[in-house]
Amino acid sequence: MIDDAIRVLAGDCTVITEADDRAEYRGRVTTLVKPDNTVLVHDADGYQPVAWLTRADSVSSDRADGFTLVAKKGTRTLRLAAHDRDGFAHYPTSAAGTPVGECPDCGGALVRSSGVHCVGCGDSYGVPTDATVRDDQCHCDCGLPRMRVERGLAFNVCLDRDCESLDAAVREAFDREWDCPEPNCDGALRVLRRGGLIAGCEHYPDCDTGFAMPAGVVNGECACGLPTFETGTGTRCLDTACERILEGASEADAASDD
Ligand SMILES: [Zn+2]
Ligand SMILES: [Zn+2]
Ligand SMILES: [Zn+2]
Ligand SMILES: [Zn+2]
Hints:
It is built from 2 helices and 20 strands. With 258 residues, it is mostly beta strands. The termini are far apart. The relative contact order is 0.09. Residues 254-258 have low confidence and may be disordered.
């Protein structure tokens, strides 16, 4: 179910924009109103609109007397009035993204933008930004592609969390694996979801120690006792604020940094 629609109006229009100054245009233009209230007025050439308002606070239209549209954002206003209407239509619209496979439900294209969604039926799946969507399909018969996500280990799980849970896989691998680093706490770190996946002390709320699970693979132990992770930007401690990460570095490692 794709319920987002893009509205298109074509015709001979007057367009008035008011911000610090006022401008008035008239021409046979095509106006697009996106679901996020972005308004674009296009004329005959170039990629750039004659007038536009990105993500307006409000867009109202009135079709009683020809067609008028008023978009407002802060102190800026865009007004449009059609003198002669060539066309007016609504079209379904979705985010565009990189194709990553085929929807097992409807055969439509699965594309990746912020998550993965089907261009055909609108089904969507939350995918961590650092995940890679793979070519191989899920082991069960759901037919979806799998994704590779690094959270201490590299996990390959179904796009559908109800089919195969990333959280459960990470929990199985790392729940209670590390001790809480608080000096006066004897707790273990649990794998929990609070917004993102975190390794958080089991004695919460008495102890509020918690670290976001890094996008990387465990490659050793920090001098502080917590694990270190190999990430896209280098090796780091589970605790981003930890400054003891370099203590264990060998002479050779230190030299190779020069
Ligand atoms: Zn579909
Ligand atoms: Zn599956
Ligand atoms: Zn603790
Ligand atoms: Zn550390």
